[in-house]
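Take a look at my tokenised protein here and describe the backbone shape.
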Amino acid sequence: MNQHPDDARSVIDQRSPRLLLCFAIYLRWYLKRNFHSLRILKTGLPVDAGDKPLVIYSNHPSWWDPLIYILIANQKFSSRIGFGPMELKALENYAFMKRLGIYGVDSESRQGIRTFLRVSKHLLSIPNHCLWVSAQGEFSDPRSRPLGLRPGISYLLKNCPESIFMPMAIEYPFWDERYPEALVSFGQPIESVKLKQLPRNNIMSILDSLLCQSMDDLAKMAATREQKHFETVLEGNYGVGGIYHLTQQLKARFFGKSYHPKHGDIKINE
């Protein structure tokens, strides 16, 4: 009997740790070219979930989110085997991502939702597995409220009662550089067994509240523009660039002085 293309066993078998490692190395280079840094709020570092399966659900402010997942997973969750759902139509355009543990979901049909739950339930039956989920389902500004979490997250919780659910806030503010920051904060994890008997509306409200709290905490610290509040995972690009950068660099060379291109401390040292 042929396997269903989204069968959980097929999803596990297609995942290539070697390709994932190579892709994570490429992503470090790629994000360095496009961001000033990737940082995690120190008061929002991920809590150890023990040996239970883990679901990390986040807001969805940007196209960059799945790439941030992969880098954070590589840095902070290296002992876990990660997977993540993606809209089936989008995955068809990035077929190689199936080798990274991504599986397709047809969220517009009941059969698609049933497939998502079946695959996810099997993936989360294994203790060291981790599922990364953009719970909003579509791009949304991190200041927008209510969050509008997709109902699939509550169905997932009810179907995976032995898992830990952990909120993750993401935003991409500009600080002093022409390149944006990628900022992340994890919230209070909660055992799904404690919620699974509640009505779905109550579950959604609790998950929404936990994620909102993480997003509010991150926004508050992001507004300070203080690096000391964050743990730096990746240092990327900096400097104002363009003609100003070039003229300052030439001026420094002419006078035999050092030049610091970071916008926050642009100066030519004496």
The chain has a mean pLDDT of 89. Residues 53 and 163 are 5 Å apart (CA to CA). Residues 239-270 form one domain. The chain has two domains: 8-235, 239-270.
